[in-house]
């Protein structure tokens, strides 16, 4: 599609570090917990020091308020992020 998995210029994300991956096709009933459960099989997900929540950002549709089925996930280290991309691409 137009948004290639390899591209890192996500307008809503300002942390361009290579530990963060963009995923789509998650469905609209997804929660941060379910995304965390899925991706922690691959590597350690970063934790937000302030909230104690995993660093996962779920995108919502501004017009409907519904989840778009897209998210960013931040891992503790770039190799985990790369493994997640490779693993996700293989699905």
TrEMBL record:
<dbReference type="InterPro" id="IPR000504">
    <property type="entry name" value="RRM_dom"/>
</dbReference>
<keyword id="KW-0694">RNA-binding</keyword>
<dbReference type="GO" id="GO:0003723">
    <property type="term" value="F:RNA binding"/>
</dbReference>
<dbReference type="Pfam" id="PF00076">
    <property type="entry name" value="RRM_1"/>
</dbReference>
<feature type="region of interest" description="Disordered">
    <location>
        <begin position="1"/>
        <end position="20"/>
    </location>
</feature>
<feature type="compositionally biased region" description="Basic and acidic residues">
    <location>
        <begin position="1"/>
        <end position="12"/>
    </location>
</feature>
<dbReference type="GO" id="GO:0006355">
    <property type="term" value="P:regulation of DNA-templated transcription"/>
</dbReference>
<dbReference type="InterPro" id="IPR034870">
    <property type="entry name" value="TET_fam"/>
</dbReference>
<dbReference type="GO" id="GO:0005634">
    <property type="term" value="C:nucleus"/>
</dbReference>
<dbReference type="InterPro" id="IPR012677">
    <property type="entry name" value="Nucleotide-bd_a/b_plait_sf"/>
</dbReference>
<protein>
    <recommendedName>
        <fullName>RRM domain-containing protein</fullName>
    </recommendedName>
</protein>
<feature type="domain" description="RRM">
    <location>
        <begin position="19"/>
        <end position="91"/>
    </location>
</feature>
<keyword id="KW-0539">Nucleus</keyword>
<dbReference type="InterPro" id="IPR035979">
    <property type="entry name" value="RBD_domain_sf"/>
</dbReference>
């Amino acid at each position: 599609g137009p948004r290639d998995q390899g591209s890192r210029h996500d307008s809503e994300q300002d942390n361009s570090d290579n530990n963060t991956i963009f995923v789509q096709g998650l469905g609209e009933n997804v929660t941060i917990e379910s995304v965390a459960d899925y991706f922690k099989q691959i590597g350690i997900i970063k934790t937000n020091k302030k909230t104690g929540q995993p660093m996962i950002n779920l995108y919502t549709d501004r017009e409907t308020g519904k989840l778009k089925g897209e998210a960013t996930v931040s891992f503790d280290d770039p190799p985990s992020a790369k493994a997640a991309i490779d693993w996700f691409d293989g699905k």
